[in-house]
Amino acid sequence: MKTLKLVVVSAGLSRPSSTRLLADRLAQATARHLEDRERTADVQVVELRELAADIANHLVTGFPSPALRGAVEAVTAADGLIAVTPIFTASYSGLFKSFFDVIDATALTGKPVLIAATGGTARHSLALEHALRPLFVHLRALVVPTAVYAATEDWGTGGDDRTEGIAQRITRAAGELADLTAALPSAAAPAEAVIPFAQQLAALGIGPA
């Protein structure tokens, strides 16, 4: 079975953190989906909380610490990326944004990314679409259609007749990331050919009506 590198970026500030909990559940679900596609996942978690001082120092000096350099290299070399942030003032956290400011603007081009967020209230769920998705689109990443938001009341609930529960949203988003990641050439080796955009959409089950 081919091994793909899955990197999880978690911007949770507390310990334990609901952001890390959501990140872990997304990674586990993606790994299961990849196994169904005859792939194995080598999962690496980047905890931004542990790199906060290094990120701040890099922004003012331009020199990354060995730990920060390793985190950036892991994200750059990943076959698939899961990015999870808490929502503050209707947007991603400053720590989350600062980390991606450190990364080269072209490093995420064509990389499959699953975006997710946590918050105290469901009112902030739209931050995924007006803040996180535009950020990764600007970086030319391939953002999967389903974004996952978990409010405090979502944990342990199964949804209702009109909305999916968090477990269903995690499963669907993870399946989309696994489909796209498994369909693209490994980031660890140069691609032999450009993957047509129609083929990328087909991997997600999206096609002409």
How would you describe this protein?
This protein is an alpha/beta fold and 209 residues long. It has a single domain, classed as Rossmann fold (3-Layer(aba) Sandwich), CATH 3.40.50. 42% of the residues lie in helices and 21% in strands. It has 7 helices and 7 strands. Strands 1, 2, 3, 4, 5, 6 and 7 form a 7-stranded mixed beta sheet that branches. A hairpin with a 2-residue loop joins β3 and β4 (91-92). α1 packs across α6 (166-183) and α2 (52-61) crosses α4 (94-102). It starts with a strand and ends in a 6-residue tail after the last helix.
In short:
This protein has 209 residues and is of the alpha/beta class.
What keywords describe this structure?
7-stranded mixed β-sheet, 7 helices, alpha/beta, 42% helix, 209 residues, globular, single chain, 21% strand, Rossmann fold, 7 strands
